[in-house]
Amino acid sequence: FTLVDPLTGPGKGVHFSDVAGLREAKQEVKEFVDYLKRPEFYKSLGAKVPKGALLLGPPGCGKTLLAKAVATEAAVPFLSMNGSEFIEMIGGLGAARVRDLFKEARKRAPCIIYIDEIDAVGRKRSGQMGGSEGASGESEQTLNQLLVEMDGMASKESIIMLASTNRADILDKALLRPGRFDRHILIDFPDLIERKQIFEQHLKGIALEHQPDHYSKRLAHLTPGFSGADIANVCNESALHAARLKQSKVTGQNLEYAVERLVGGTEKRNHAMS
Ligand code: ATP
Fold first, then answer.
1. Which residue range or ranges hold the AAA+ ATPase domain (predicted)?
2. Ligand 1: which of 19, 61, 198 to mutate, judged by most atoms within 8 Å of the beta carbon?
């Protein structure tokens, strides 16, 4: 797994201000930040804080970004792993990895555990699904270990578990029970206003002819169905296009060229997902 310590790690970390839009999702995760910062306050009130939340939504819309921002804002370590890394393991190694991850988290608490693409490890076990679609023996063991570790997490440990998926429908029901991932936070494609904000965020780092807000409204209108990752890509492509043409500044034309290039790709992808 990857461990990032926002206090000592590389860069300055991702802050909430780096996550454009997603107002409601940010509001929901801010409670976790507060809990990680002052667990005693919650305990003194007798409040049981949720162990974590499932971030649901299509790829590239800010799930990882938001999870990292929680860690940075709370100034706690961020331990992340991709669900598929567990299932590549054979001979009980997947379960051992889960144990290691939680062991490390206990050592580092307060901290955040983030499992990206949890559906890879959290598929319904065979009892809940017929045929070959259910989890195999190996990944069942891994999932069982994950459930054991989550249940064993004492509330005094101040470990928040966040996980992401775009396939909540295939998750094992046991993962969604109270006390496990019972909170769901939707991170969907950005709407018009959010796309404008994401453009402004990513255009900040580009050498533009005019200020970002000169372009952002039109770009937002041109990009329905784009994810935040697509928008970041447009901004970068526009700068590469300007470089190819040996310009010293990025223009509106470079930006629209980059949008055009990406429109075909996103249309194909969104069609495949629907
Ligand atoms: P995946 O499911 O593929 O892991 P994700 O939802 O976790 O996707 P992120 O990794 O958070 O997506 O986003 C990818 C990149 O897209 C970010 O690093 C960032 O550059 C950009 N991005 C996505 N959403 C936003 C946003 N709301 N604000 C600013 N940038 C964004």
1. 49-191
2. 61
3-state SS, residue 47: coil
| Both tokens assigned to 189 | 């494609």
Q: Which residue among 19, 64, 65 is best mutated to probe the pocket of ligand 1, counting the most ligand atoms within 8 A of its Cβ?
A: 65
In this structure, of 23-32, 46-55, 255-264, the range with the lowest mean pLDDT score is 46-55
**Could you tell me the distance, in angstroms and rounded to a whole number, from the CA of residue 65 to the centre of ligand 1?**
6
d(CA 18, CA 57): 19
Contact predicate 248/206, CB 8 Å: no
What gap in Å lies between CA 8 and CA 25, rounded to an integer? 27
Around Cβ 189, how many Cβ atoms within 10 Å? 18
Q: What is the pTM of this model?
A: 0.88
